[in-house]
Amino acid sequence: MKLDGLTGYRRGNGTVGVRNHVVVLAAADNVNPLARQLADQTPGVAFIRASFGRGQLGDDFKLALRTMAGMAAHPNVSDCLIVSFELASAQRVAEQVHALGRTGTMLSLLDEGGVTASLRRGQRILQDMQAKALQGARVPIALTDLIVGLECGGSDVTSGLIGNPCLGGFTDYLIGSSGTAIFSEPVECLGAESILQARAASPEVGAALLRAVARRDEIAKEQGTDLLGANPTADNIAGGLSTIEEKSLGALAKSGTRRIEGLLDYAEGPPRPGLWMMDAPSAAVENITALTAGGCQVIMFVTGSGNPVGHPLAPTIKICANPRAAQRMAEHIDVDLSAALLGKLDPAAGTRAIAASFARVVNGELTAAERLDYVDTTISRIAQST
């Protein structure tokens, strides 16, 4: 298997995008309506909503800023308009965007004197950004330019038996080609800690991975839920996964067999190529938001039940090996591996099908989530607001 002929957009900071989005990003929830209206009234502009307001402190404040900046400066973004009520909220995000080697234009509703004036000015800015984006041209890129997010959700027996192992084969190929991949969801490594430790690049990395898993387990226990030997997710149980350990062994298969270089914080980008684990929660929208903000240009998402959601910035490729789901949710599935359950598709062929879809999407083919505009973003929360 060899992937060549890939194309993308080279950015001034050295990163490479596979999309050329113009984005309007809300820096706080009180301007979500303004940012949404700007996107609705400027066709082709992607809308990134704020998950929370201005009452965040400490680690939550840092996490929100890092995530918003990671999306505003994302390689798949040509240009970004950062919208806030008062200018300071946008400035905080713009400063971190600048630190990532990109720029963002700011718009303050308060400074403009209301929503009507903000819409007029914002539309002019976005139209200028779109005109500039249209001048961008695709150029040859390599696998080494790409960071791939690995996700699974709505898991079932076919996820662990077929979908995730086939994706794991692609992950091994990517890492073997000096590419980069990030998997996350430490809680879905419960029961598989020994595998993580054995694959860690060093004892220190192994210890960090185990701490991340233990911390997620402790969060569940603090809320009165003991995950070990159980599975709290109804659709997983219906799909034949009765325990978190069963789910974990299947979920970890998507990461392949290569060594794990280290642990990344939520929305943190990898410092060098290789396979990394990100400390992010298992809920799909929170997770793909973290992966995207960490620089993933494409997300590979294995689903047994047909989880339809994708991210607005990172094309999200849905992979399904469940025959019923692949038929019932066909409009949401990009790679149908269900023939494998009937013995008509071997794992190597499944991996090649994933790689072929990946190459097409990198080169501009829309994913199902993109075509259907079934996309969303949510930043995780650690503590309560003041």
Low-confidence stretches: none
Number of strands: 14
Q: What best-fitting shape do the alpha-carbon axes yield?
A: globular
Which percent bin holds the helix content?
40-55%
How many structural domains in the coordinates? 2
- Average of the residue pLDDT scores: 92
Strand content: 15-25%
Number of helices: 14
Strands across the major sheet, in which order? 10-11-9-8-12-13-14
Q: Which class do the helix and strand fractions yield?
A: alpha/beta
What integer value in Å does the Rg equal?
20 Å
Element-by-element helix/strand order: EEEHEHEHEHHEEHEHHHHEEHEEHEHH
- How many strands, which pairing sense, and closed or not: the largest β-sheet? 7 strands, parallel
Distance between the termini: 53 Å
What does this entry look like structurally?
The protein has 386 residues and is of the alpha/beta class. The protein folds into two domains: 21-134, Rossmann fold, CATH 3.40.50; 143-372. The protein is built from 14 helices and 14 strands. Strand 5 (77-84), helix 3 and strand 6 form a beta-alpha-beta unit. Helix 6 packs parallel to helix 10 (244-252). The longest helix has 20 residues, at 115-134. It is globular.
